[in-house]
Design brief:
460 residues; mainly alpha; 0% strand; transport
Length: 460
Amino acid sequence: MEALPVLNDEDVDRRVKAIIRKVDWRMLPLLGVLSALSLIDRSNLGLARTAGMDHALHLSIGNRYSVVSLIYFVPVVLLQLPSNLCLRKFGVVNYLSFLVAAWGAVQLSMGFVPAWGYLCLTRVLLGVFEAGFFPAMVYIISTWYTRHEVQKRLAAFYLVGILVGGFSAIFAYVLTLLGGKAGIPAWSWIFIVEGLITIVFGVIAWFFLPSFPDQNTFLSPEDTDIILRRVEKDRGDSLPDTLTKEVIIKHLLDWKLWAIGLMYMCTTMPAYAISYFITIILHGMGWNETASLLLSAPPYIFAALSIMFFAWIADKYRQRAAIIAIQAVITVIGMTMAGYLKSPSGRYAGIFLANAGSAGCIPGILAYSANNIVSHSKRAVATAITVSFGGIGGIFASVVFRQADFPTYHPGIYATIACQLLMLLLLAITTLYYWKQNKSIREGTASGPLEGRPGFFYTL
């Protein structure tokens, strides 16, 4: 297929903005809801535990709860790259709608497990089916937009998940009121109802889920051509390149992908820790079961506002590293407050800051990665590596926030702060490298174009 000619600046008119709005409305709300369901279904463990699952399945024995939390991430880490490589082979719509419905069925079955061993098995299956979802969403979104439009879209997609996920604690509380109906305990109703909702959205996704720009069916050929031309002008990868074993190995040898993956691990670690343990931490601060469930929501509302504010700043001023660094510092301040202040209100305020900082870094790092990549094949590999490291962050969170450290979780606090410092170091190294490479292009001393694309500059 011939390369597409680029658009002139005067071609980006009112019609283009209307097309982008159409893409936004077709893509972001549905992907955001699916992201929310993914977040809820993998992190409602703490809510169910608070609602009685702990006693029913004897999860307080040893480190059983940490094992149940951790085991989900094993298939997530192992399967994300293979799953991303399957997207074009099986088709975005068929593949992802199947994954959503399948993990919904697993979630539903969790409401009927008779012992903690069966809960472990269902958590593994949940990880198998959820593994390919998030990297695929990031990959798909990044193919539709220019580099400095993408963080707001990633943030919006993630923000819907954060908002709905935040209210999941209130929804879970409502579901616990069904406890005893049909002889089913309160904690089981959380899994059953949320699993059924996920299955329904898996069916909806089959009808409305968007694909890659060159494969979409909801835009006219002329509008599709405009989308492809905009991307071609921005970074020269509007059309997919050939994916071969040699190409995959070449991408895997790029150290920057692994550095950004480690950065992502460092920011997902506190995000997962908060989602899994927030109700337990709040309970340890002295609030009762009902208050712990209800007080879980406000930090996520605050995080959503923070995410959109920093994403808007990042795209407007075309800055990535500085915004990520600011949010990492906010995370450190918040975790320190949550771990060491004496008053429950002060510690609760710390959870607000820690959640906002860590959640905001997630779309920031994804955009930092997406902005500095050219070619569909590298984008598929990079998003899989990055999000796989996010799964490792989840494993880390499950290990360092131990039942034995309740209610202060000081070892987990130390580990979270250490992760933020490591992320800042890696961010400094990669940004310095990008700056030097940009400088060599401007001075004419580079051995060749960056990422093999003439006129391309890294986003700092």
